[in-house]
Amino acid sequence: MTGARRLFIGGEWAEPDGGHYEVIDPATEQVVGLAPEASREQAYAAASAARDAFPAWSRTAPEERAAVLDRAAGVLRRDLAAHAELARAETGATTGTARGMQVAVAVSRFQRYAKGALEPVESALPPQISEAGPMGPAAVTGALAVRQPVGVVTCVTSYNNPWANPAGKVAPALAMGNTVVVKPAPQDPLSVYAMAAALEEAGVPPGVVNVVSGTDAAVGEAAVASPDVDMVSFTGSTAVGRRIGEVCGRDMKRQLMELGGKGAAIVFDDLDDKGLAAAVAGIGTTFSFYSGQICTAPTRVIAERGVYDRLVRKLTEYIGFLKVGDPRERDTVVGPVISAAHRDRVESYVELGRKEGARVVTGGERPAFPTGFYVAPTLLADCTPDMRVVREEVFGPVVAVVPFDADGPEAAEETAITLANDSEYGLVDYVWSGDVARAFRVARRLRAGGVGVNTVGRNMEAPFGGFKRSGVGRDVGSYALHAYSELQSIVWPGG
């Protein structure tokens, strides 16, 4: 068990006004550590500290900001094993996931944006030739587009990855010269405080990074609503994103929202055995990766009738090879979900699917472990597009398969596209087809921020974000630097 953490405000570790609360290991149900419960006043104080620090930090040389971020990456890498154990304990992630996909990704993101701090922020625009007129004589006017920091950014982070997610916000924001207030998810904030300590050791000036946590929604509301905050970067549910958007709208604050998803995975019947195996492995990540607690998961499978039975059979076999259990054990693939409340929510969706007429092919029963918030990987077949389990984000190891019939390849494409786009979400969709040209043709018509063609892999320089209710804005790669900046134009008369 770690000790009691303190808030990080203005470069000082402060005692929380609301005392502490217990952070629970989802596998053992034991206390991992004590997290600070901030007050609204302390959230406002954090934003004020960030505001005070902004003028100096925004004027630092890019090389200085790059050096701080690079040193932070080194500090995190030095302590990677300890950080990974903390991440495993407070999230329930397997050891491999905690090391490779949580802490190691955070390290790589600080490294990436150390380089990003050095990317050009100015771009010359073509000169404009103006005829003589009421505004003056004929002239040639030059122009420059300059990316400027937004100001104070509140980063509200998700519970499914308390390392990669905040690093993906904090690092590019700092690289661009912004200062930040981080409000971590209440379920697993300890990792974010460890990240703050690494940044402090790396030499980040006081007030540039601030962290406030709490279980009371008022803390997050204050961190968003503070008049000192210029922008909010949020990862989480669409419902919470809407509330944040309403608050930001009142004061015209910039927003970057990565919200819910219900990824459609289109599987055409032109796949050979190798292609079908790739589709099964890709869809199967929903069951195993973060125990399905990932917004990009291909949870809504739209399968052409000719491949439907084989796909369901192969997915069933795939689940049979997934060991559910203690995430500390080397061969465990599926650990627990984040909390008892979330386990109950996921189970309620499985039961709802049953009532709606879905066939529970495998899973659907709570694993028999003495402790832990485990959900069995569950496959629902014979689903229809109108079922809530098909339309709503479950955020757990549950896949719903919707079969469709079509009279010919062209009709199959039209039907699949219609079914995939029939969703309020549009984060990441997937297409599996033996015809790559066909897959790209379909991908271009999907209303999603990203589309995987015969893969669930990601290119970490490609823009990431959602259409529709899956979000606002784009980040990752240089797009994150753009997201945390404002464009300013400077014009001057030519000679």
Describe this structure in words.
The protein contains 15 helices and 20 strands. The chain is α/β, with parallel strands linked by helices and 495 residues long. It has 2 domains: 7-259 and 470-492, Aldehyde Dehydrogenase, Chain A, domain 1, CATH 3.40.605.10; 264-464, Aldehyde Dehydrogenase, Chain A, domain 2, CATH 3.40.309. Helix 2 (62-78) runs antiparallel to helix 4 (95-116), helix 2 (62-78) packs across helix 6 (190-201) and helix 9 packs across helix 10 (305-320). The longest helix is centred in the N-terminal third of the chain and has 22 residues, at 95-116.
Layout of secondary structure:
Elements: E1 7-9, E2 12-14, E3 20-24, E4 31-36, H1 40-58, H2 62-78, H3 80-91, H4 95-116, E5 122-130, E6 139-149, E7 152-156, H5 164-175, E8 179-183, H6 190-201, E9 209-211, H7 217-225, E10 231-235, H8 238-251, E11 254-258, E12 264-267, H9 273-288, E13 300-304, H10 305-320, H11 340-356, E14 359-362, E15 378-381, H12 388-391, E16 398-404, H13 409-421, E17 428-432, H14 436-443, E18 450-453, E19 471-472, H15 477-483, E20 485-493
